[in-house]
Amino acid sequence: MVRIPVTVSVDDEHLDKLDDVVRQLREQGMTVEHVLLSLGIVTGSIEDVDALLDVEGVLRVDLEGRKDVPPPDQEIQ
Amino acid sequence: MIDLGPTSQVVASPDGLTLMTPPETTGRFIIVFADGVKSPRSVLEKAGLGDVVSSRDLEGQKSAATTTDTVFEELGMAVVSAEPGQLGFLEARDGQSRVLSVSPELVHHIRENDYVRGYAEGVQDLAGRLGGSPTAAPDTSLGRGLGVQFFRDTTDFTWGIQAVGAQLSSFSGAGISVAVLDTGFDPTHPDFAGRAVTLQSFIAGEGPEDGHGHGTHCVGTACGPKSPGTGPRYGVAHGAAIFSGKVLSNAGSGSDGGILAGIDWAISQGCAVISMSLGGDVPQVHPPYTVAGRRALEKGTLIVAAAGNNAMRTQLNFGFVGAPANSPHIVACGALNQQLDVAFFSARTLADVRGGQVDLAGPGYQVCSSWPMPTRYRTISGTSMATPHVAGVAALWAEATDNRAGALWSTLVQESKRLLAPSLDVGSGLSLAP
To answer: Are B260 and A7 inside 8 Å of each other by CB?
Structure first.
């Protein structure tokens, strides 16, 4: 199975219980990469994205996107 | 200080001589009291103008102020009938000015036919542009006073620095921390020797140095030095502390995870402004950036991002603002050229999406700035170049006003130069330095 990169946003009410939420995310199988304290966002990857939706305190789970800039030799950046 | 009102004047203009008649006055005067004056009534009494009613006593008779001399308690102002001689007694005494200004009470009218007149002027302007000579400025009141501005690089300042007015500003961003989240920064660049620069990488397997160039260019525009060793000044907030977060690889690619980590870091470092010249050409808001933008604002950090370069206006493709700039809590920056027209690649507001509007615009065409050594400088174009101009200006305003986050956003919008270009493309216009 493939690990899918995800961005988990924690709701306002659980911002001060971030550690609890992260523990539960791990229990559901998430490999946590970053716990962003100022943003209340946890990034990482998981095989079964749906498993995270029921974790208490999760506002939403989004698939990670990529952002690029053109190669250095391009005139328009 | 005492303004008895305008008189009729004959004014000479390119259109010929015009008689300017002053607005109507009632004969009464509006007095503005200095902050901290506790009893406007006693100031008025000393001038023999104490026969006034307090606004607090006007409950139920709100229209009385139009005929009765009144002190407006909440505004710290009053409207009084007075002879000009009486007004002289309101002047400063003992070096203490209790009155800030005295002005005639003007009469205002609803504007009849303004819509029709504006429409006619617009048609005339368009006809002039289509049929007139290429160098003719539109000869209607729409164009009069705006003229045609054209900036160019000089030996002292890049055109972008002049356009935002940074070279005239007494502010430098001193005491303000600015984060640039990009491909990193070249710390060996001689123009930044002795400067407070903090580097951090969020790219696994790569250090914080800039192996692409884009990041160094953006840092330069936002925070370059007042007097570079050679060449024109190209940086806005020359006194700001620089935080370079490498969230894009040397190949110019980054993930949301790294970018969000960079935003989080910048907030934790106390940055007032985050500049993000990056994005994806997706016509939807990406929800994590909505959350991140909102929480950044709550913590005193304003994020500005590039609107996008996916337009090709010469082919009538206006593009759209992609993520993360299209996020409701992130400022989207469009690009202008030296004539303050929208650059041909600059993305237009993403229609019908909350947050998808272009908010402000900055110089984004043929922008000279720093580049990793040994190249040292490079001139490139993009909404990526407009964004750090706006970020640098935001840092100057943060220093000038102590405003942060939402209040800083509001200040930037208020203090931008309105342009002829549509708001779909430039928002409230060109960001101007304090």
So the answer is: yes
Q: In sequence order, what are the residues at sequence separation of 6 or more whose Cβ sits closer than 8 angstroms to the Cβ of residue B301?
A: B266, B267, B271, B272, B273, B274, B404, B405
Contact A9 B288 (CB under 8 A): yes
Q: Which residues of B touch A66 (CB under 8 A)?
A: 253-256, 280
Q: Among B86, B106, B126, identify where a domain stops.
A: B106
CA distance B264 to chain A (A): 6
- Please report the beta strands in chain A, taking only residues with DSSP state E, as ranges in sequence order: 4-10, 31-36, 41-46, 58-63, 66-68
Q: Where are the beta strands (DSSP E) in B34-119?
A: 53-54, 70-72, 77-81, 99-106
Q: List, as ranges, residues 239-278 from B with C-beta within 8 Å of A.
A: 248, 251-257, 259-261, 263-264, 267-268, 277-278
- pLDDT computed for residue B425 by the predictor: 98
Residue of B214, B217, B329, B389 with catalytic role: B214
Q: Rounded to whole angstroms, how far apart are CA atoms B33 and B98?
A: 6
Q: Is B217 considered catalytic here?
A: no
Contact B288 A67 (CB under 8 A): no
pLDDT > 90? residue B389:
yes
Six token digits for residue B299: 């913590």
> What pLDDT is stored for residue B115 in this prediction?
67
Q: Encode pLDDT of B4-52 as tens digits.
A: 666 666 666 666 666 666 777 888 888 898 888 888 888 888 888 888 8
Contacts of B214 in chain A (CB under 8 A): 69, 72, 77
Residue B354: band (very low, low, confident or very high) from pLDDT cuts 50, 70, 90: very high
User: How much is the ipTM here?
Assistant: 0.89
Give the model confidence (pLDDT) of B196-247 as tens digits: 999 999 999 999 999 999 999 999 999 999 999 899 999 999 999 999 999 9
pTM comes to 0.81
Helix (H) or strand (E) holding B177: strand B177-182
User: Mean of the per-residue pLDDT values for chain B?
Assistant: 89
Of A34, A40, A71, the CB nearest to B261: A34
* B108: annotated active-site residue: no
Residue B42 lies in a domain: yes
Q: Which class would CATH give A4-63? A: alpha beta
* Percent of chain B residues topping a pLDDT of 70: 86
Q: Is B253 an annotated catalytic residue?
A: no
Return the SS3 of B417: strand
Total structural domains within chain B: 2
Nearest CA in chain B to A32: B257
In terms of domains, do B174 and B91 share one? no
Query: What residues make up the domain containing B427?
Result: 159-431
Q: Which of these, B321, B264, B258, B322, lies nearest to B291 by C-alpha position?
A: B264
Q: Tell me the domain boundaries of chain A.
A: 4-63
Q: What confidence category does residue B94 fall into, taking pLDDT thresholds of 50, 70 and 90?
A: low
- B171 and B92 share a domain? no
Tell if the CB–CB gap between A7 and B295 is shorter than 8 Å: no
Q: Count CB atoms within 10 A of the CB of residue A10.
A: 25
